[in-house]
Each structure stands twice: as C-alpha cells, then as structure tokens.
Design goal:
Rossmann fold, 8-stranded mixed β-sheet, 3-stranded antiparallel β-sheet, 18% strand
Length: 251
C-alpha cells in the first residue's frame, strides 16, 4: 500500500481535523479504515459520484476478506428531483448497485431522499434521528465548495430540503446525461449543512487538481455560506483523505 503522509493541520482548521495525503490509488483504503470501525451495524452516510468510488471498492474487497457489512444502515446525502428511483441516473440506483448490493446490505437498511416537499425533508430528518444519527458521513466536495447539494449560499442551519442546483454543478454532472445540460435536473433534495454536521464523524474524499481551490478554501479559508464545505471546520471529528493534486494548494 502507498505510504500515508499525515500533515499537521494549518490554522484556522479545527484541531480535530486530520488531513491525510496519499496517492490517488490509496484514497479508498485509507477512507475504508474509518468506515470499517463502525462495522458490522453502524449508520453510514453515503455520498455518490466518482469521488467515493474507490472507498466503496475497498469496502467490497474487505467484505470478501471477512469484514461484516450486511448490518450497516445507509443514508444517502441527496437525490435529484424528478428522477424515478428506477432511473439508472438516480442516486437511489447508484446506492443500490454500487454500495448496498455488493456489500450485502438489504433494501430495508437503505434510505435515499425522495420527493420534493418540505414534509419529505422533515421525514428524512426523523428517519436519521430514529437510527440514532449517523456514525460516519462520507462527503465529497464540489468545485464551487458544495457538500451534498448544498450550493453556495447555504448556511450552517440548513436541514434536508429541496434546492436549486447551481449551473456549474449541473454542467459538471452533464456527463451522466449524455453531455446534454438540458437533461440534467434543475433541483435536488439534499441533506442540509446542519444535517451533515450532526454526524459523529465525517470523512471527506477528494482527488484531482480541479478540487484544489475549493478544498483549500474549505480547510483554511473563512467559514462562510459562500463555501458551504468551510462549515466542516466547525465539526469536532473530520478526516480529509486526498491526493497531492487536490492538496497542492494546502501547504
């Protein structure tokens, strides 16, 4: 395995934040070390997209080696409004096919936001609370600093709700819609910043130079709704696992 370099936090990062720089091919294993701590039956908040794929692949390998994952309970960060759960581009489909099925997690242990009303958001919050909260929350970071689909302008008190997606986010996700921006949903339901921060532990995974500016701002910039990821500085237990390209401005 690639050697892990642990960097001392740079002010004003919370003293409980760990920044771990590894080669891109080791991100999944390092992040999986944290998730494995809550097996076999913890509550795992899962992100979608490309950033956490290596983490899920590492967990699948560990399951084959004997890690018990069948009892994990999953809560997804977000979902597009307007896509049916059976649509292969939906995050419900992603969670089923990429995470739950390979890890042997039954459907009744998987929850993904759905619907488009405030009541749906409140119900999702109640479901998380009923499970005792999230033990480990996985997040990525958008080029504009979003976490989940909390776009710039989202404040620290937000809870699960419907949001309008920033055009930059829609453009970044157009590749999953045959490159056609007009087919990318304009709204999503997302866990809020406060919901994410209520997790007992957060793991942020990032790779590539395209994330460098947003990651630097999130870790060392001012805490501001203009960069929702910056609110992670207020959390008492955050682990950032990223490659040298993503951390090239964090020196």
């Amino acid at each position: 395995m690639t050697e892990t370099t642990l960097h001392a936090p740079l002010a004003p990062i919370s003293p409980w934040t760990r920044v771990v720089m590894v080669d891109a091919d080791a991100i999944g294993d390092v992040a999986a070390d944290v998730v494995a701590m809550i097996a076999p039956d913890g509550v795992l908040g899962v992100a979608t997209g490309s950033s956490p794929l290596a983490l899920y692949a590492a967990l699948i390998r560990r399951r084959a080696e004997g890690l018990a994952t069948e009892g994990l309970r999953l809560f997804a960060l977000d979902e597009y409004v307007g896509l049916d759960a059976s649509d292969p581009r939906s995050y419900a489909a992603y969670v089923r096919s990429v995470i739950a099925r390979p890890l042997g997690i039954p459907a009744e242990n998987v929850r993904v936001p759905r619907g488009s009303t405030g009541a749906d958001g409140a119900a999702y919050e109640r479901a998380i609370a009923a499970e005792g909260g999230v033990d480990v929350q996985i997040v990525g970071i958008g080029r504009n600093g979003h976490i989940g689909f909390n776009e710039p302008g989202s404040d620290a008190e937000t809870r699960t709700r419907v949001v309008e997606l920033d055009e930059s986010t829609r453009r970044a996700n157009a590749e999953h819609f045959d490159g056609d921006l007009s087919r990318v949903p304009t709204h999503a339901m997302t866990q809020g910043v406060a919901t994410i921060l209520s997790a007992r532990r957060i793991v942020l995974v990032a790779s590539g130079a395209a994330k460098a500016a947003a990651l630097r701002a999130a870790l060392t910039g001012p805490i501001t709704p203009d960069n929702p990821a910056s609110f992670l500085q207020r959390h008492p237990d955050v682990t950032v696992v990223a490659d040298p390209d993503a951390l090239r401005e964090h020196r």
